[in-house]
Every structure is written in C-alpha cells, then in structure tokens.
C-alpha cells in the first residue's frame, strides 16, 4: 500500500530564515505530487504540482519554490520566510489521471509558524 | 463567484440524524467530485468520489451529483459524534490535468 511522509511535523521559524520541507511517497511509481497551504480557518491553496522528476508547475507567485529531485520526493523551500508564510503545509500524491479518476491522498502535514 | 462554494457552517445535527452537506461549482465542464473529511489539526482524508449523475453510496455516506444544477452533496446517515469534522468538497475541472479545486469546507458538529 502507498504511504506518504512529511517532515518536520511542526516548525517555528523567525522571519527571514530559510525553509525546507520534505515529502516522500512509498509504494507507487511516478506519482503526481502536490504542495498545498492551508491558512488558519481557510481552504486549501495549491502552491505547486509536479508530474515528474524536475517538472514543477507553480500556481501562485510567492517567495516559495519547489523541487523534485527524485521520483517520490518533493521539497518545498524558501530563502527568506515572511509572516504570511505561516500555515499548515500539506503534500499530496495521486496516480497519473485515469479518465475521471484523480483522487489525491494527503500526508500528515507540517504546521509552520513564522514569528 | 468562487469556483467551489460551501457553507462554512457550523452545521449542527443530533446524534443519529442525517447530515446533509452541500457544494456548488461554477465550471459546467467539471468532471469529477470528491469529498474529504478533515479533523481539527489533521490532514484531509478522502471519503467519497463521484463522477456520474445520481447517487453513490458507501456505508453511511451517500454522494449525490447533479451536473445540470452544478451541485454535489454528501449525506451522512446515523450521524455519530466521531463524524464531527470539516468536510471539504473538491472538483476536477475539465482541462486542468490532475489538479483539484477545493472549497473552504463545512464544519459539522454532531451533538449528543
């Protein structure tokens, strides 16, 4: 069965510091991978998605970046955090789209607080 | 108009009752529809998926899709306190590859 891991689970960082969040998936090959952010009391905002190694699509302009150095590894980074970067960061995976099916499965998330 | 709209709630139902959660979407070409459950402080968990008009049942959950009216609903029968959570509706829009668009969720409270 497939498993998705994220770390760290929680993170408190000062404004202006760098960020690196990691996500790995087990039990599947060539998954689609996604990074979402959920601000307090708000919906899920898609930040990046990737359909393969080195292929990253950005959904919103911001000071965050994403990389996919390996098939089942997805990394979210920032050089300098802003207060507005605080939130619950979720990584998700899906198989390549099969007709109408495109279920996405979420990792446990990283709660980031920028002070 | 938001692409996917949900009433934020809270929707309060007594234990054992039917909870009805609704979602409307703006893109008439949307293909697939998903319901996720999110407990406070946790990540979303997929509970239902539907793409054909009509009803789809899975245990106590029934998803209903009406593409002509552009709404999808989730019914939870025999509601339990453990069903108290935020329910997120997600839509796969036509031409968006593998991306889903999420609503902001409806908070459900099942009272004893």
Structure explained in plain terms:
The complex is a heterodimer of chains A (115) and B (112). Chain A is built from no helices and eleven strands. The mean pLDDT of chain A is 92. Helices cover 0% and strands 57% of the residues of chain A. Chain A is mainly β and 115 residues long. Helix content of chain B is 0%, strand content 53%. In chain B, the strands form two sheets. In chain B, strands 2, 4, 5, 9, 10 and 11 form a six-stranded mixed β-sheet that branches. The termini of chain B are far apart. Chains A and B meet through β5 and β10 of A and β5 and β9 of B.
Compact overview of the structure:
The complex is a heterodimer of chains A (115) and B (112). Chain A is an all-beta fold. Chain A contains no helices and eleven strands.
Q: What's the topology here?
A:
The complex is a heterodimer of chains A (115) and B (112).
Chain A: E1 3-7, E2 10-13, E3 19-26, E4 32-38, E5 44-52, E6 55-58, E7 64-70, E8 73-78, E9 87-94, E10 105-106, E11 110-114
Parallel strand pairs in A: 2-11
Antiparallel strand pairs in A: 1-3, 3-8, 4-5, 4-9, 5-6, 7-8, 9-10, 9-11
Chain B: E1 4-5, E2 11-14, E3 19-25, E4 32-38, E5 45-50, E6 54-58, E7 61-66, E8 71-76, E9 85-92, E10 101-102, E11 106-111
Parallel strand pairs in B: 2-11
Antiparallel strand pairs in B: 1-3, 3-8, 4-5, 4-9, 6-7, 7-8, 9-10, 9-11
**Count of DSSP E strands of chain A?**
11
Inertia-based shape of chain B: globular
Greatest chain-chain interface?
Answer: A-B, 23 and 22 residues
Helix content of chain B: under 10%
The share of residues in extended strands of chain A comes to: over 45%
Measured as a percent range, the helix fraction of chain A is under 10%
Radius of gyration of chain B: 13 Å
The portion of residues forming beta strands of chain B comes to over 45%
How many helices of chain A? The count is: 0
Uncertain stretches of chain B: none
Order of helices and strands of chain B: EEEEEEEEEEE
Termini separation of chain B: 36 Å
Biggest sheet of chain B, in brief?
A: 6 strands, mixed
- Classify the secondary structure makeup of chain A into a structural class: mainly beta
**SSE class of chain B:** mainly beta
Tally the helices of chain B: what do you get? 0
